[in-house]
Every structure is written in C-alpha cells, then in structure tokens.
TrEMBL record:
InterPro entries: CGGC_dom
Residue span, CGGC domain: 3-115
Name by which UniProt lists this protein: CGGC domain-containing protein
Organism annotation: Blautia acetigignens
A Pfam family it matches: CGGC
Length: 117
C-alpha cells in the first residue's frame, strides 16, 4: 500500500476546488495511471504563498517545514505537483521549485503533473 500526496499553489485556492487532480486520482488516469487500487491519497498541501503576501522563503517557513515533516512521518512516497505550479510563460514558480527540492531532499519522489494540462 503506497501513500502519495498532491502539492498545489496557495493562490490557486481562490478559484480551484482540486476537482481535476482528485478525479484523475480516483479514476487512476493521467499522471496517476500507474498506481494500484489500494494507493492512498494521504496528503494535500499548498505552497506558502507569493513573496508579496508572505516574505518567508520556503526553507524558513515554519508551516512548510511542518508540512514536510508530516509527509515524512506519514511515509508518503511520492508528491505530485499540480499544473498551478506554472506561472507566466509556462515557467515553474520559483517557490514551487524550491519546495519540490525540499521534498526530494527528504527522500520523497516528486512528479510534476496530476491531470492532463
Ligand atoms: S508562490 Fe507560486 S505557487 Fe505559491 S501562491 Fe505564489 S504563484 Fe502560487
């Protein structure tokens, strides 16, 4: 039984109910196609917001550090990152990139993608 999580942009909360990510997971399609039926979606987390709203960089943000500790203690093996990681010109938001690096440094695999973009 494998545990996975989904990481999304805090700002996208304003307009997104996570339906695309969740339905792809329940249907085991798109980036979730490889998972067995008994895979558990064990965690949903967001970034710590844009610099203008939250000056704390992810490495020093207590909330982010606590969330990543929780992923480790829950033995989450993989975190998928939503399309909301992409900002202008379809470039990845630098805060998202940093958080992905922090997740990987804790031994958790990061996969960029949830549903088809
Ligand atoms: S820092 Fe990036 S990922 Fe986070 S809310 Fe802002 S745009 Fe979204």
């Amino acid at each position: 039984m494998e545990k996975i999580g989904i990481l999304t942009c805090l700002h996208s909360n304003d307009v997104c109910a996570r339906v695309g990510c969740l339905s792809s997971f329940w249907r085991r399609k798109d980036f979730f196609a490889k998972y067995a039926e008994n895979t558990i979606l064990a965690a949903m987390l967001t970034c710590n917001g844009c610099k203008g709203d939250n000056p704390s960089e992810p490495e020093e943000d207590k909330g982010i550090l606590e969330k990543l500790d929780r992923l480790v203690s829950e033995e989450v093996k993989t975190v998928h990152v939503g399309v909301c990681r992409l900002i202008e010109d379809k470039k990845e938001c630098p805060r998202m990139t940093k958080i992905c690096e922090m997740i990987e440094s804790r031994g958790i695999q990061v996969i960029r993608g949830t549903h088809r973009e």
